[in-house]
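Researcher: Good morning. I'm working through a list of sequences from a screen, and I'd like to move beyond sequence-only analysis. For each chain I'm collecting a predicted structure so we can compare shapes side by side. This is the next one on the list. No need for commentary yet; just the structure.
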Amino acid sequence: MSQIGTISEQRATSQAQVLSGINQFEMGASRLPEIAKPRNLKAFVGLNHIWVLHKTLIVRGGAALFMALILAVGFQARGGISQAVANTADLLASRIAVIGFGIGEISISGQSMAMETDIVAAIAIDSTSNIFNFDVEAARVRILEIPSINDVSVRKIYPSSLIVDVSEVTPIARWRVDGVTFVIDGKGIQIASATSADENLPLVIGDGAADDAFNMIIALENYPILKDGLLALSRIADRRWDMIYSSGLRIQLPETEVGRALFQLQEAQNNSQLLDRDISIIDMRVATIAALRVNKREEPSH
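Model: Good morning. Structure tokens for this chain:
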């Protein structure tokens, strides 16, 4: 009996060991790592499409940002933080210009006296200028500083063009001083250098002539007969005018009461063709006297 009991105990012990081994195997198997499943597959596909479509822009933008960061770090290390920011902004602006948004075309219309080169210089395009950072109003203010321009509009045309429409000042006369001839406006301001296209404008000569030209030109509009053959109005000592004719006649006007003198001249021309006679000077500087100087004739030699 004791042997049978011992054998039974041994069998029970063996079975318990087998069951324990099976349980440990199952527990170990339950702790094995699971195979990872792909996640966010749609997001990955979307990013891949963006990369394929915009690879060039992304690479250029990344390169620009990288260079900008290097520049900023370098300047910051030297204490130039504000300068680093400015240089970074310039670099980014220039990169934007390079990828197709730089201002590549400027259309200018309406100018005849103003030089295109002066207008372009006032617009002030540089390597950092692009259609986004270009200041239209600041450019307009600079263009208006050109004397011959009265008004101007500046418009952006995306992605890379500007349209400039100019309205110029109306010139009233040519002003010759020290051998140089300018075109002037009603205020006597120099608009531009005179050209052959301005030869129909009245010519005023001498120091101070530009300042009083408008008043004299307007006064002559009331006496059109006196404008026939008139070459120039010469300012004398910045106090009065001489009228110079193609015939060589010179009329010396008074400092004051110019209108009265012009009226008298018109009456004399209507009644006796005074201006057509062989006279070199008509002196009207004294109100009550008109002095005449007849051209000298050479006596025939015998």
